Amino acid sequence: MRGTYSGVNSPEATITQSAATERTYYEYSISLNPTSASFSATGESKSFTVTSQRRLVTVNSVSGTTYGSWGSTGWEIYPTNLGTGFSQTTSGNTITVKASANSGSSRSGTLSVRCTGNTSETASANLSQSGATTTTTTTEYEFSVSPTSLSFTKDGGNQTVSIVSRSRPKYTNDINGEVSYGNWSAVSYTAFSSTTPTGTGTNSASVSVGVNTGAARSATITYTQSGSGTKKTVSCSQAVGTQTRTVRDYSFSANPTSLSFDASGGTKSVTVTSQYRDGTQSSTDEGNNWSSTSWGNWQTASYTGTVDNTGGGAFSGSGNSVTAGANSSTSSRSGNLRLSQTRSGIQENGNSWPSPSNINVPLNQERKKEDVYVFLVSPPSITFNANGGERTLSITSTKNDSVIGYSYSWKAMLSQFTFSNGTISASSAGTLGRNDTLTLTQNESGKTATINVSQSGSGGGGEILDDCTITVKYISTGASANAIHVNADKTPTSDLTINITASYTKPDNSKTYSGKLISYIPKGSTSGSNIYFSDLINDVYNWDGNGTCRVNFVTVSPTKDNTYNYNTKVTEI
Questions:
Q1: pLDDT score for 508
Q2: Among candidates 397, 429, 399, which has minimal Cα distance to 415?
Q3: Which residues touch 10 (CB under 8 Å, ≥6 apart)?
Q4: Are 97 and 82 in contact (CB under 8 A)?
Q5: According to the model, what pLDDT value does residue 203 have?
Q6: Which of the residues 312, 355, 388, 482 has the least number of beta carbons within 10 Å of its own beta carbon?
Q7: What are residue 497's DSSP bridge partners?
Q8: What are the DSSP calls for 111-160, one per residue?
Q9: What residue ranges of the chain have pLDDT lower than 50?
Q10: What is the CB-side half-sphere exposure of residue 441 using CA atoms within 13 A?
């Protein structure tokens, strides 16, 4: 960059910058493959591949040098004279160089190529050819056997094979192709062992065959000549003798042929007979007819047993044993014990044994029978006098005729009544009587039986028992008396409040509470509200902290003797 300045009093300055310079040119490359080749004296042709490329090169004074992609470019052979005895032809990027037969000493040449776009880019390959020799020596072999086949009777015997195995040198003039031979000499050969013939290579070999006690048979003897590797064969055959074969017989059965289980399950097994025996047969007509079989002793044959549950069963096991789990369903179920015997060899008729042989043992299990529960308890009620005592219940509790247990509970859970091992015990009573209800519940079935238990008091004092009846007289509409006026349907003609003074002794602490039973019955209704027991005595113990307990209202129903019966149960609130 260059600038000029006109002075202190000048208002402007001039700045200039030179532009970048750039030039381009092509870069060339050429190669030959292979880079050398040798030719035999008899002459031959070989190929060379030419790779000729160029790419654009850009040189920028600022950004530097960049290169384009390589691409094919033209080429030529230069010089075209490759040397004495060598010539060339071109097809595409392939040059074929031919060397003619050389009858003289070894010679050489050069194949050169260059890029036509840049003749300074060259590549070359060195060419060489062997010189001619006077003669080439090789070996000529002769190898023969006679006869090429031998036949023997079933009694066997010996026969002779004549063998010629020899070689001689062969001389070939490399220039004019004239051939001459040397003398024959013996060459060793192998069959069962290595043998060297005598003299000029003629020999005899003996073939021996033993007596044939089986089917007709054949074999091939192969003689291999050393050096040449040539093989000659002699086919041998022998007539049929007395042929024998081993046959096999099997026995496979299961007893019983099916297994049945009850619903409770269990383990059962079947008796399995798994045997085989071998026998011998003979034939003198190449196996067309066989003698009767001479059998050996029976031997144990292996087998396997597997269980399946295709019928929804729960069977398991292996071998000959099956286990059935308990059947808790109301449907029977089934399965199979599958026994399998592996077989091999041939049958008495000569056919192969099919394998395996299978036996299926069906499995069945009964459905679960519905349980029969019996639960009988007597007597239904027991009364004790004030002195208390013990009473034993008659209890029958069975499931499918087997004894099962039961549980019990008391309704009021009074401490004066106890139950153990079928016996109800009552302690001595106070002045007031008491009653409770014992409930027995049979295990599994849930069946129940109730026994009403009561005990008279020694006398004196009023008491509302755990279950009690409050009786209120009523009269018809319009009648006069201090009684309840009711309609024809026995319902009150006006709202009714019943106040009854009573006392109650709480079982857990033996405290007695005095108060009133208060019941409210709306007019026209036989159902009243809950009855409340109000504690009127000044005592530090209150049932709920407010001095009240609840007597649950159960039923109100008019009876034929013109009374309303209020059945109640006292409970803490």
A1: 56
A2: 429
A3: none
A4: yes
A5: 82
A6: 482
A7: 520
A8: EEEEESS-TT-EEEEEEEEPPP-SEEEEEEEEEEEE-SEEEE-TT-EEEE
A9: 459-483, 529-573
A10: 7
